[in-house]
Amino acid sequence: MTNDKNLFRKQALDHLSSPEQLDLLIHIIKPQDWLHLSVLCTLFSLIIIWMFLGRIPISVSGKGVLIYPRQIVDIQSPISGQIKQLNVKVGDCLKKNNSNEIEQPEEIIAFINPIDLKQQLQQEKTKLEILQQQDIEATNLELQKNQLEKLALQQQRESLQQRLRDNQIISPILKNQTNSAIQQRQVSLQQNLQDTEALVPVFRERLEKRKELFTKGAISKDGVLESDQQYRQNLQNISNIKAQLKQLDVDITATEKQYIDNVNNLSEIQVKLQEITTKEKTLKQQNLTDVINRKNQILQNKQEIDTLTQKIKNNSTIKSPHTGCILELTTTNGQVVNTGTSIGSLEIKAAASEKLVGVTYFSVGDGKKIKPGMEIQITPTSVKREQFGGIVGKVISVSPFPVTKQGAVNVLGNTELVESIVTKSQEPQIEVWAELKPNFTNFSNYEWSSSTGPTNLKLSSGTTTKVNIILEQRQPITFILPFLREWSGIN
After folding, report:
1. Which of 449, 434, 431 shows the shortest CA–CA distance to 366?
2. How many other CB atoms are there within 10 angstroms of residue 97's CB atom?
3. Exposure of 69 by Cβ count < 10 A (0-12 exposed, 13-18 middle, 19+ buried)?
4. Distance of alpha carbon 204 from alpha carbon 232, whole angstroms
5. pLDDT-based confidence at 29, cuts 50/70/90?
6. What distances in angstroms separate CA 251 from CA 114, 181, 331, 459, one per listed residue?
7. What tens digit of pLDDT does each residue of 240-264 get?
8. Which parts form a coiled-coil structure per UniProt (predicted)?
């Protein structure tokens, strides 16, 4: 220990043990370091202020195309057939076909072989041959049938007419002869009745006399019986004659009835003759109707043939429904198409008053955040956004549901374009339409966000674009608060 103390000078040890410098400040930061600290505090304050007062734009991006609104239409084949020759190529412009005017070459999109119509035409021609042959056969059969039916009706008429004549002639004669015979018979019977009645007193008197003689015994009983028998026989004859006279009255009634029946029979015969006449007229009318029906079928068939022939003539070409230019062709020569099959798309020539609009496709997650009225920046893909910015526009509509591929094709009119913009993303897309802000002092005639735009760019329908939409401006602090709440557990 003594050796350790000898290592230091006595003055040094005394100086260290002296309390004379205990009240002096210790220098922790050098004066030149205050400047750095002030700068850091200022930056930190600015960051705090920026976090509350600053704004960070939240945007979404998508791909789209500039088009004239609702001016792209799908060209569909009006009939089924085989494409013989395409008369146009992509980019060719056509005139609208007017059905009342002569067909012009600049109206024709393609020449088509209407196979179905030609098949229908051949079927109708075959049907016509069958109908004509059936008409000939039916006419011959009807002729034979009519001859037989007319012959049968003629025979019935002649038979009925003969009966009618016989009844008309014989009935009165028969009635007269029968009545005459009955009258003669009545006269004879009445005379016979008178004679027989005149014998009654004679036979009665004879019977009474013989009864007296028998009583006296002058004659036998047989004589009395004989007289009685004669008397009774005479009375019986009177009864028989009266009965015959009554029968003659019945015969007269029967004769009258027979005559009336004959007269009625004449009426029946006349009715049957009228029925035969009616049958002849009906047969003639039926034959005429059958002939007319067959002729009408043949006529209708010929009209159908004429119609199909005209259809084939009119439908041998596919004509442009509008004035415009071909955007896409989806068929080739020799391809068979059905009615309604798309063969391409046509951009209708826009009127001078029409303006380009932007059609953009966003993912469903981004598209659902977009509202009409939001500002939009549309940059053609051939333009550098960093240099020129984008064309200023405003959202005018947002599709409520994701669009289908066919729906996008109907809008854009080009399948390949739809494939590159919509289908390539492999997720549903929301369609957004936007109008462009005009500025006719710029070369492009539109307002740009950070410049006057390119001086060599003329915008046209079909220009592909990259689009950016600012959804909102958020305070930076709002990005940190969720993490602070999660870290601190404060709601």
Report:
1. 431
2. 20
3. middle
4. 9
5. low
6. 92, 10, 105, 125
7. 888 888 888 888 788 777 777 777 7
8. 131-163, 238-286
* Residues in a beta bridge with 167: none
Secondary structure element (H or E) that encloses residue 225, with its range: helix 221-314
Residue 304, C-beta contacts closer than 8 angstroms, at least 6 positions apart:
124
Mean pLDDT, range 449-453, rounded to an integer: 83
Instruction: With both helix axes pointing from N to C terminus, report the angle between 221-314 and 115-216 in degrees, rounded to the nearest 10.
Output: 170
Domains located in the chain, CATH noted:
2-52 (no CATH), 58-71+353-474 (2.40.30.170), 72-114+315-349 (2.40.50.100), 118-306 (1.10.287)
Quick one: which H or E segment has residue 342? strand 342-348
Q: Let me know: does 379 contact 454? Beta carbons within 8 Å.
A: no
d(CA 153, CA 151): 5
Nearest to 290 by CA among 434, 400, 401, 138: 138
**Residue 380 near residue 441, CB atoms below 8 Å:** no
pLDDT at 183 over 60: yes
Q: Establish how many alpha carbons lie within 13 A of residue 360's alpha carbon, considering only the half-sphere containing its beta carbon.
A: 33
Q: How confident is the model at residue 1 (pLDDT cuts 50, 70, 90)?
A: very low
Whether 371 and 472 have beta carbons less than 8 Å apart is answered as: no
DSSP annotation of 449 reads: S
**SS3 label, residue 141:** helix
pLDDT in tens, 330-385: 888 888 888 888 888 887 765 655 788 999 999 888 888 899 999 999 999 988 88
CB distance 480 to 473 below 8 Å:
no
State both tokens at 375.
């500002």
